[in-house]
Amino acid sequence: MRLSFHMFAVIAAAGIEFDGEVETDTESEEDEVKDKKTNKQHLRETGRASRLQSKKKEKDKEEKEDKEEDESKEENNGSQQNRASRRTNYQRKNRDGKKAREEGSRQKDRGKTAPNKDQKESENKEKKTTKRGKEGENKQKKGRKNSTSSASSNSSDEESLSEEELAMLKEQVEQKKKLISTMRNKPWRMIKKLSVLREAQDFVEKFEGALGKGKGKKLYAYKMMMAKKWVKFKRDFENFKTQCIPWEMKIKEVESHFGSSVASYFIFLRWMYGVNLVLFGLIFGLVIIPEILMGMPYGSLPRKTVPRAEQATAMDFSVLWDFEGYIKYSALFYGYYNNQRTIGWLKYRLPMAYFMVGISVFGYSLMVVIRSMARNANESTADGDDDNFIFSWKMFTSWDYLIGNPETADNKFASITTSFKESIVDEQESNKDENIHLRRFLRVLANVLIICCLCGSGYLIYFVVKRSQTFSKMQNVGWYERNEVEIVMSLLGMFCPPLFETIAALENYHPRIGLKWQLGRIFALFLGNLYTFLLALMDDVNEKLAEEDVVKNITHWTLLGHHNSSAGNDSTVTPPPLDPADVPRGPCWETTVGIEFVRLTVSDILVTYITILVGDFIRACFVRFVNYCWCWDLEAGFPSYAEFDISGNVLGLVFNQGMIWMGSFYAPGLVGINVLRLLTSMYFQCWAVMSSNVPHARVFKASKSNNFYMGLLLLILFLSLLPVAYTIMSLPPSFDCGPFSGKKKMYDVIQETIELDFPLFVAKIFSYMANPGLIIPAILLMVLTIYYLNAVSKAYQRANAELKKKMQMQREEEKNKRNNKSSTNPMMQDLEDLLTPSTKTESPSKQAEDKKIDSPNVTSPSRKPGRGEVLAGGPMAGGRGAAFTPPSPVFVTQPRTLGVWAPYPGQPRPWGHPLRPVPGRGRGQPCYPRAAR
Amino acid sequence: MGGSASLIPRDLLSEYQELTFLSKQEILLAYKRFSELLPKEERENACSARVPKSQILTLPELRANPFQHQICHVFSTSETGDDSMSFEDFLDMLSVFSDSATSDIKSHYAFRIFDFDNDGILDRKDLEQLVNCLTGQGEESQLSSAEMEQLIQNVRPAGQGMGTSPGTGLSAHLPPQILEESDIDKDGTINLSEFQHVVSRSPDFASSFKIVL
Q: What is its subcellular localisation (chain A) (predicted)?
């Protein structure tokens, strides 16, 4: 082995023409000896016998000899040994300065032999080149003996490199570089790779230097240097980037214990965290921080002050916990912001910024979700639905090499075994559906039950929200009454999924289908709850809007009265302004909505954490420690340990995010809370999973469901965009709170900015653009584009499917050809039955054709000789092709009569395809055994 | 980290980066883990030392793997055949199993791992052994010989599909079995190119053929 490595290294060093071989060589080491031979041949054939080449050869020999001496490997062929021994003495004397001198002398040689070269080149014979090589060697020796100054003349010789040599050198250098960059793709041993790499690097270094010398080549050298630096920089940057990915080790740890499906949840969580960080940066950087730094301070305006009646309890924890008191009148909520057009010395347009950030939160989220979906889709184009290799895939790719935990491995073994057995007995399963009526009844029953559950939960939430509105009007309500909505929603979210699972047991679906149903149901539950909540909230908002009108008048009159009274008392002194805490104010529905969402989020966080703590951790502790003194085996029996519920967790995360999206417009601080939540739940859940969960009994892979999560997220994003857009577009903002107060609609802020801050023509352009006459055609255009793109993608899909079919047919054909067996494709056989008779008579009447189809035996005797020929002869037996008239015209002229071909539309001549080498074979042959039977 | 970094020469480290799919940190981590497998006195020159197979198999990443022996065997360069691994072998292994390795090289090594008798083809014996590996050591989880037979070759279960002649629609519903599926040239074995052809189509081969330290 060592020897072969060594030899290969030598060959690689010898390199010029060998490079191609070296690169394309993906065989293992055993082939290297062969390589050498082929290389030699190659050399002989391509022997351009240029100066350079001869020079190279000399170098090869010398290097070979060097190595042979160095490692005393004498096993090489005899001639080399001889030569080696001839030169040994000399080389041993002065090995040190040898290389430099060699080069110099060689180049000298080159100069001397240059005139002869062209003639010799034309002959292209090995002998001559070797001879010349020997001559060169002799001359070298002489040269070396004669002049030690040859090294000094090196540089001048260097410049005499002609253009083509340069080009060639460059080419080689490029090849070497390519080799270096693709080396890692080769299935070689490290030692071999190392040696090849070193040789290649030496070569590149040396000749890059050579190329760099002389005039006009500095640029090249510079470019090379920069390229090298760039590669290094890129590598360092990659290293840095991988170092920057957070929680990589944590996720890996989870992955090795629980397989890739559980890890996919954490990767999703990490991705969500990244998205939320960006949203957080947007909102904090552009809205909250400018407001805190440059806006009016707390207490300067009624909207920024706690009302007098609440001031006594505003700092109590119980009040703060409900996000009332000081928290309600802080920059975390919509109501705190002032409607001043510009704030601070920067003239920062806060209302405008607020509006734009609100929009860009959605814009950014949409963009990110869709982009990552598209990327996932691109990655998974590797024919996931190709059902050709189900068994092979099960066998070759079912093991998850990341599993490092024996328990998980046991589960994986079990699941693989089941999947094998399942697919083996699939056929029997499908046959034994004996009690189909009972099963159908049970499934219907289960669905009815679940729909009842869903409706009940929806009504419950609606009822509770309604009740909470009456509570909110009453004074002195307890903690439970105030938090009823959140508690009920969380409890529903906690108990409904297990209930669904229990009900789903009735249905007796295959687990994979069952999981999908389960996911769909939980999704419907969450969605229903969310929207009921929203509807109830809308009622609330409408009530508040009605209330607002009343308050508006009161406020107006209060302010007016205060002014009048102070004016009436003494007109000389300016009246002390009314304390902002005393001004009566409206209900500010925006802040109410924001508070509802924040509360919901917080209670959701708490419930999640408590569930994990109680349901997983305490249970695990109980099972673990009480097991020593219990009547039955707790670990294997009833409570056992909890499994990590991937689908539930993913859905929880997705809905949580939907809430954030909905609430972030009215509560800018919500994103900050969510960032904290994701951060803590990363650590907390990682810990919980590692400490108290057991791997799934059925370990399934995650790769396919990645886009599924994203799809859910996109759906939720869209659904949460709707109510926000509705409120922004159609509800009037409160008159005394928030950045848009005083305007009729929130989006008026854009119009205002355009009118006041932009030149006139921009306003005009905008007014034109807002014209329905322009918008409707634009929408039409977009719809048409979508339609067109859709049609194109459908066409591509069809083309794709067709190509796949073609490939399959080709493969079948190949198979048939190889194993001389009857066609495995039943469709083809059916077709043969139809085609064989019809080809005989080109255009008979239909009845005649049918008759012949019915009696294939008639045709078979005449073909018998043909079959014998095939069995005896090679696959390209000419007799067969001749005996069989090309059927393509038949097919073209009568495509409708052959129902079998319906699945291949738009494929004009499938039989006459040039890629099928023997058109008649696969189709014609198999019908004979049947006909003969 | 810094201590172990100094033990690999800088240029060697950059060469390793060039030759593997690993980043610098991963190589250093691999070095650390590798030297931990060595006895104390050999840690100084971990680059040249060899770790016996029994030590390699104590790695948690390989402990649960049913192909652990085969993996050691494939990546070892030991002349004596004891499947011991040098640091470079270890790096080779990690590179192949790393995230960024191409599926080409992954499938190449997967083939060699599945090729239990080292004859360059996957024949029935290999496949049987593979199934046994995948179904675990436990007696109850192993497939019966009839099931195995059916899985590997296209043998219809008795009583099933006998009444129907081949070539009619029903045979299309029977699951095609492994040799039937992937043995393109019908020589009864699967060679490397057939294997790569099959595996490269798989949506999740590259994501599961992965070991991360």
A: Membrane
